[in-house]
Design goal:
There is one protein chain. By secondary structure, this protein is α+β, with helices and mostly antiparallel strands. Helices cover about 40% and strands about 20% of the residues. The chain has 20 helices and 24 strands. The strands form 5 sheets. Strands 18, 19, 20, 21, 22, 23 and 24 form a 7-stranded antiparallel β-sheet that branches. A hairpin with an 8-residue loop joins β5 and β6. The longest helix is centred in the last third of the chain and has 24 residues. About 50% of the residues are buried.
Length: about 625
């Protein structure tokens, strides 16, 4: 087949290219729910061009004066089309002089931990998108995807190459790098590389969970978990949903720490239901937990379900009578509470740890409950635009300024990142909860009491009456600051707008918002909303009191409301998605106040729709 600029760019027009990954429907049929392993010829060509462009970019970004070979770690999740994309990319990497360590199926956190020993990684995945979708993530050896600026450079190079017929002919039409004997050796190394990958991930996970490279500290923390769990058992349930985590460390890490583990849908590639780990799909692990309890095991207290690449995994917990699905914002809040408490715990127990100048990095639609939790531990919260890469890079920036950033992530989707990891990981989330449950009060050799994580939280948040020795995760949840927040997977959280220029839309929105605010002051005051401030988030930068809403462009725009004491009590937020053709909105309100949350979101949505109609006429 002859590939042309037109055919390749037509294919590109249906892909979303962002720092978080390049995504689209790769199934040959073009259907997003198709389980076929086949991709079209033009998608294979696009995959080959992606490999060529990344090889070029890597050589320029990380030049090697000694002329040594670059090594790229390569893996897929369990989507059916993953192997077809790999087959299109590997010959090109080889022809570009890259050494490829192909590991087959691996979870995203796994391949990123493994790649720390090499130059870069390429990961074939479309994360939580439907099964017919696929995509590509690119990263170096720092444990995360490349940052926003690097992603822009790579995308620009890729688009330039795809508009150059000579390069297309070289890479696609001329059967570039047809030395299949050498290419087959790359595929033959999969099993050995997978073993090394799993080992690297296990070792790195111990470091992340314990917050230490010191083996003695690691052993002390894990031994405390083992000892506590022997006295008050906690078992874990998982719905793998055929994901990449079926072939990762999950079963082994719980086994090593003597934590009983149960799983369903644990055969790789057998994706049993929708992939996104939101409440409508967490019901499967919730029902599994209830079956285990009905069968006579009362110790099953935590359940999780990862997405296909295994970097997200929201939580279900046992409340004493039934399995309850935690909302994404609650999952992230518990993780922040746990890890900030854990930093305080380490500082009490080990003299080498200090608990000072602590920061938390989050995305802009994360609930304000995080600020309340952070204040308890004298930590500051900083916000970035939506996108894992933005939050990771904000955390790096803060560390360069002398801050300790142990915990970061995107509260809006429950994605928790625990330093030194640079990617979300459900294993770290589950162990954060286990640390909350298992690391309890103890007397130190000097006679002082080292307070356990939950007890310390209760003391510092003036809720010590809520603490008891036989507390459960349900008891912890009850101590969280109460907020009413729009769920990211709710239908009302997504708007479809016609205006492609989001800056223009927001400029019109500003005029309409000001008019709405002035007309509804009496009603709004009844809800305690006395004043407001605007914030925009673009990449890692936040602009406070933005005077011209249009300047936020495609970034996040938030309007925060304050009470008579100038205390923030609610916000509304908007941003066009970078990975899906939708416009996302939400509201966050302090307290159990569904009425105000619904009203604010409806008002906000109505203004956006009207602004969109007006912007289309300009």
């Amino acid at each position: 087949m002859n590939y042309t600029e037109e055919s390749i760019n037509e294919c590109l027009s249906h892909l979303i290219l962002s720092a978080s990954g390049w995504r689209g429907i790769f199934a040959k049929s073009g259907l997003e729910q198709d389980f076929t392993t086949e991709i079209s010829d033009v998608h294979a060509a696009v995959s080959a061009m992606a490999a060529y462009s990344f090889s070029q970019w890597l050589s320029k970004k990380c030049p090697k004066s000694d002329g040594s070979q670059y090594t790229i770690a390569l893996a897929t999740d369990t989507r059916p089309t993953g192997k077809s994309i790999v087959k299109a990319m590997v010959p090109v990497f080889y022809a570009c002089g890259m050494k490829v360590n192909y590991v087959g199926v691996a979870s995203a956190p796994e391949i990123m931990a493994y790649a720390r020993s090499f130059d870069a990684f390429v990961y074939i995945s479309a994360s939580h998108n439907p099964v017919g979708h696929n995509g590509i993530k690119f990263g170096l050896n720092d444990g995360g995807v490349i940052d926003g600026n690097d992603a822009k450079d790579l995308i620009a190079l890729f688009k330039s190459n795809c508009s150059n017929q000579k390069i297309i002919d070289k890479i696609c039409n001329a059967n570039y790098a047809a030395n299949m004997a050498e290419v087959n050796k790359i595929f033959a190394g999969r099993e050995m590389n997978k073993g090394d990958c799993v080992y690297s991930y296990m070792e790195f996970s111990r470091q992340v969970i314990s917050a230490s490279t010191d083996k003695s500290v690691q052993d002390a923390i894990f031994n405390s978990i083992i000892k506590s769990n022997a006295q008050n058992p906690v078992s874990i349930a998982c719905d793998f949903n055929g994901s990449a985590r079926t072939l990762s460390i999950d079963k082994e890490i719980f086994k090593q720490n003597k934590i009983p583990f149960y799983s369903i849908n644990d055969e790789p590639f057998k994706i049993a239901h929708e992939i996104i780990p939101e409440p409508e799909n967490l019901v499967h692990v919730a029902h599994f937990m209830e079956k285990l309890h009905a069968a006579g095991d009362p110790t099953v207290k935590i359940g999780y379900m990862p997405d296909c690449d295994g970097d997200r995994g929201n939580i279900v917990y046992w409340d004493g009578t039934s399995a309850q699905i935690l909302k994404a914002q609650e999952v992230f809040s518990l993780s922040v509470l746990a890890e900030l408490s854990y930093m305080d715990y380490l500082a009490q127990k080990f003299p080498q740890f200090k608990s000072e100048k602590i920061a938390v990095a989050v995305n802009d639609p994360t609930s304000m409950r995080i600020e309340e939790i952070a204040r308890v531990f004298s930590a500051r919260v900083f916000r970035a635009e939506v996108g894992e890469a933005n939050v990771v890079n904000l955390a790096r920036k803060l560390r360069n300024q002398g801050c300790q950033v142990r915990i970061l992530g995107e509260g809006s989707n429950g994605g928790t990142i625990t330093y030194p990891s640079c990617v979300r990981d459900p294993i770290n989330t589950v162990f954060a909860l286990l640390k909350l449950l298992c690391l309890q009060d103890e007397v130190l050799p000097n006679g002082k009491i080292c307070y356990g994580l939950f007890h310390r939280w209760c003391i510092l948040s003036n809720q010590e009456s809520s603490y008891k020795k036989d507390f459960s995760l349900s008891d912890v949840v009850k101590t969280l600051p109460v907020y009413t927040t729009t769920g990211v997977s709710e239908s009302r959280a997504v708007l479809h707008v016609k205006t492609s220029d989001h800056g223009k839309l927001k400029g019109v929105y500003q005029e309409m918002f000001l008019s709405w605010w002035n007309k509804n002051r009496t009603v709004l005051k009844k809800y305690g909303l006395e004043s407001w401030r605007s914030f925009s988030n673009n990449g890692t930068e936040q602009t406070d009191d933005i005077q011209d809403f249009s300047l936020s462009g495609k970034g996040g725009l938030k309007i925060q409301f304050y009470d008579a004491m100038n205390y923030p009590i609610a916000f509304i937020w908007m941003r066009g998605s970078g990975t899906e053709p939708v416009f996302r909105v939400m509201a966050d309100v302090k307290g159990d106040n569904a009425d105000l949350e619904k009203k604010l979101l409806q008002w906000h949505s109505d203004i956006i729709i009207n602004a969109d109609e007006q912007a289309c006429k300009l």
